[in-house]
Amino acid sequence: MADFTTNSIKRKKNMSNRNATVENALVFFLLAFAVMAKTVFSQNCQSTGCPGLKECCSSWGSCGIKDDQCGFWCFSGLCHLKNKSYGFNYNVSAGPRGPIESIVTPSLFKRIMSKVGNNCPAKGFYTHQAFISAVKSFQAYKGTVAKREIAAILTHFAHGSKGFCYKEDKARGRYCSPSKKYPCEPGKQYYGRGPLQSIRWNEYYGAAGIFLRLPMLKDPDMVAHSPEVAFKLALWFWTTNVRPALYLGFGETSKRVDGRLCDNLHPDDTKNLVKQYVDLCKILGVTPDEGLSC
């Protein structure tokens, strides 16, 4: 009887151990699945950007604020550029320089816009007067400006709007992230608008609105209604997120404007972007920097 009882206890103990092992394996599987799901979801940051103003998109496709994500291997967004160097100083902001009106003349602007097709929704929307007015509203450009930088700006503006053909991103979405400082307005969407349609999310519209003293958070559509506001939003993003990286070359500006340009999945787009920049530099009579690749 004693042996039977002992064996029964052993069987129950073994069964309990097996159940515990199965439960532990199941928990581990679920945790691993959750991590993988989160990782897969986070890959979207290379195509949609990160919602937080303090976040960057790492080369692994995840949003974060840590140095290992926003440091040397930062893919796009708010990268930490301190002590970051490739061993070269490509200096996109190098001379020659001049007033913005003498660099982007009406004839040059007309030449650029002449390539906009008649079937383009933004045909006639982007004007020379709006561009000059927007540029001169920023302190950094009230004096003389570098031809290289203006060439880079116009190149990215043209690319971001599909050759100035669109003033709104065709792939629309709400792009609303939880934020106490920049809460989303009911019924409003914060997709890309203007010449840099990689600018998305309520926090960017909110921060830009405060800087520009415009109600962009309450009325994001104003970007698509006013060419000057459209250029101002793009220039705010440029001066805030891109301009600090000019010394790293045109390729680095491409990463910070839109990380998809450097993901190796769209090589033709990247080549065309570089070609546009080089061609525009030649038109402006300036040698392009050597840091063209991402």
Structure commentary:
It comes from Brassica campestris. InterPro entries: Glyco_hydro_19 (IPR016283), Glyco_hydro_19_cat (IPR000726), Lysozyme-like_dom_sf (IPR023346). This protein has 294 residues and is mainly alpha-helical. The protein folds into 2 domains: 2-70; 89-284, Lysozyme. It contains 12 helices and 5 strands. It has helices at 2-42, 45-48, 67-70, 100-103, 106-113, 128-136, 147-160, 202-212, 222-225, 227-242, 250-257, 267-283, and strands spanning 56-58, 63-64, 74-77, 97-98, 145-146. The chain is globular and about 45 Å long. The model is unreliable at 24-43 (pLDDT under 50).
Show the helix and strand layout.
Blueprint: H1 2-42, H2 45-48, E1 56-58, E2 63-64, H3 67-70, E3 74-77, E4 97-98, H4 100-103, H5 106-113, H6 128-136, E5 145-146, H7 147-160, H8 202-212, H9 222-225, H10 227-242, H11 250-257, H12 267-283
Antiparallel strand pairs: 1-2, 1-3, 4-5
Give a summary of the structure in a few sentences.
The protein is mainly alpha-helical and 294 residues long.
What attributes characterize this protein structure?
single chain, 294 residues, mainly alpha, Lysozyme, three-stranded antiparallel β-sheet, two-stranded antiparallel ribbon, 12 helices, chitinase activity, signal, Glycoside hydrolase family 19 catalytic domain-containing protein, Glyco_hydro_19_cat, disulfide bond
